[in-house]
Design a protein that fits this description.
One of its GO terms (cellular component) is cytosolic tRNA wobble base thiouridylase complex. Keywords: ATP-binding, Metal-binding, Nucleotide-binding, Transferase, Zinc. It contains 13 helices and nine strands. By secondary structure, the protein is an alpha/beta fold. The chain has a single domain, classed as 3-Layer(aba) Sandwich (Rossmann fold), CATH 3.40.50. It binds iron/sulfur cluster and zinc ion (ZN). Iron/sulfur cluster binds next to α6.
Length: 325
């Protein structure tokens, strides 16, 4: 099959758009989608100057998504004196898994000459995921603890580095899966929160000094295309599965989504288009609703100082339960 734009061999076919693209045109189309997303999410710094640049903290795990994100951000903004980028890697304390991906992060940051910071659950929270998975005091999946800890550290360190934005590598599949899970769980508040956290929510969030605006510039790019891009560009991505990966529900949704996408190409895109509109409405419904715990009634956690709607934040509660075992 030939590329739609030139006569070279196509390396990919996108069912949802019908496009066949060669290596160069495929990579250019990924770059273009990411840059468009950054523009449309109003991420470009409006009043930053070379003397007073913006700081962008990128969550870099060493997996293909965050590696591709970091690469494209560096290509696009690496020479822009108005933006300083810091790659932040979080080590969960998972034997034989995270060490290799940390190597990939170090290699990439070196290649790009980007500031790189590494923080660990063990140093910052006093737990390792391997121990958490074994103790499991709350009878939950390991990812349920891990997600809370990761979010806490990302926010805490982004804040410490003076981040104006916190960027993560969620791709289209991740986002469509999360959207579907929120629907199926009937969790409208989560939908609203998702909006505030990632979907054009910058303006609203900027009014609240306590939050660092989040962005997911890869959210228009399907997972397979992110993987192909990493491969074609020979990026140092680390691809193995975490031994504690256990989100059973997400696994089912993934299978369902693959089938839907195969039979009805474009399903992920249409889920996200509808979801964004609904999330908008949901965010309006819940914004300022102080009783829901997600409105403006936030205070500092008594133990760690993180912003929380309770006296003690979820992370501190989990740590307490783990330490009690
Ligand atoms: Fe943590 Fe789950 Fe990811 Fe493993 S798969 S790193 S336990 S969130
Ligand atoms: Zn706390």
């Amino acid at each position: 099959m030939e590329c739609d734009k030139c006569s070279r061999d196509a390396v990919m076919h996108a069912g949802y758009s019908g496009a066949h693209l060669c290596e160069d045109h495929f990579c250019a189309s990924v770059d273009k989608r990411v840059r468009r997303r950054i523009r449309e999410d109003s991420m470009l710094p409006s009043d930053a100057t070379p003397e007073d640049p913006e700081t962008w903290v990128i969550g870099l795990s060493g997996g293909k998504d965050s590696v591709v994100l970091t690469h494209i951000l560096d290509e696009t903004f690496g020479k822009d004196p108005r933006i300083e980028m810091i790659a932040l890697t979080i080590h969960e304390g998972i034997e034989g898994y995270r060490d290799k991906s940390v190597d990939a992060c170090v290699e990439l940051a070196d290649d790009l000459d980007m500031r790189h910071e590494l923080v660990t659950y063990e140093d910052e929270i006093g737990v390792k995921m391997d121990d958490v998975a074994e103790k499991d005091p709350m009878d939950m999946a390991p990812c349920a603890y891990c997600g809370v800890f990761r979010r806490d550290l990302l926010e805490r360190f982004a804040d410490e580095y003076g981040a104006d934005k916190l960027l993560t590598g969620h791709n289209l599949d991740d986002e469509a899966e999360t959207a579907l899970m929120n629907f199926l769980e009937g969790d409208v508040k989560q939908v609203a929160k998702h909006f505030d956290a990632s979907i054009g929510g910058f303006d609203d969030r900027n009014e609240q000094d306590d939050f660092i605006p989040r962005a997911k510039p890869l959210r228009d790019v399907p997972e397979k295309e992110v993987a192909l891009y990493a491969h074609l560009k020979d990026l140092p991505a680390h691809i193995t599965e975490c031994p504690h990966a256990s989100e059973a529900f997400r696994g089912e949704i993934q299978e369902l989504m693959l089938k839907l996408e195969e039979n009805h190409p474009g399903t992920r895109h249409s889920i996200m288009a509808g979801y964004e509109e609904l999330a908008h409405l949901a965010a309006e419904r819940y914004r300022g609703d102080g009783d829901d715990g997600e409105g403006p009634d936030l205070n500092e956690c008594e133990r760690c100082g993180s912003m929380t709607a309770r006296d003690v934040c979820r992370k501190c509660k989990l740590v307490e339960a783990i330490e009690a075992v």
